[in-house]
Design brief:
mainly alpha, two-stranded parallel sheet, 7 helices, globular
Length: 155
């Protein structure tokens, strides 16, 4: 059994811009509200609580809070330099919740690294006037996803 939607659970906390920023990013130049992956750094207890709740409810697998965990997606927030750290921390949080529930119940629990789409695409031009134009290259996508995967694996 797979866990449920992380984003929906995060929304139930009604977090403010200040909650997303935490202490570390209180002076960050761009808005951070909505950057759910960043909560692994600024609100790790909430992310742990969500994972643990799903696992205690019977989920065998929990997905990391990294659906938008690429440098491409994080560039909108100016947090692309944090992608490796976010993914590593996300995996560590999910693994701690899985081990805690496994130890309490004696039933094995597992972590899945969540890898979602980016906000860029190679298949369709973002410009109607220039259908052959692409705003990203295949190599850039490979580099971005590789960085995310390294963080997840190291966590």
């Amino acid at each position: 059994i797979l866990d449920g939607a992380m984003g929906t659970m995060i929304q139930s906390y009604n977090l403010s811009e200040e909650d997303f920023r935490g202490e570390e990013f209180k002076n960050h130049p761009k808005p951070l509200r909505g950057n759910n992956d960043l909560l692994c750094l600024t609100q790790p207890d909430i992310i742990y609580e969500i994972h643990k709740g799903y696992l205690e409810a019977g989920a065998d697998f929990t997905e990391t809070n990294t659906f938008n965990g690429t440098s491409i997606s994080h560039s909108d927030y100016g947090t692309q330099h944090l992608v490796y750290r976010i993914n590593k921390t996300a995996a560590q949080i999910a693994r701690k919740a899985a081990l805690d529930v496994q130890n309490a119940t004696g039933i094995p629990r597992y972590v899945i690294g969540a890898i979602g789409p980016t906000n860029r695409t190679l298949s369709v031009s973002p410009s109607v006037e220039h259908p052959d134009f692409r705003n990203i290259t295949f190599d850039e996508l490979v580099d971005s996803y590789s960085e995310q995967c390294r963080g997840l694996l190291d966590g």
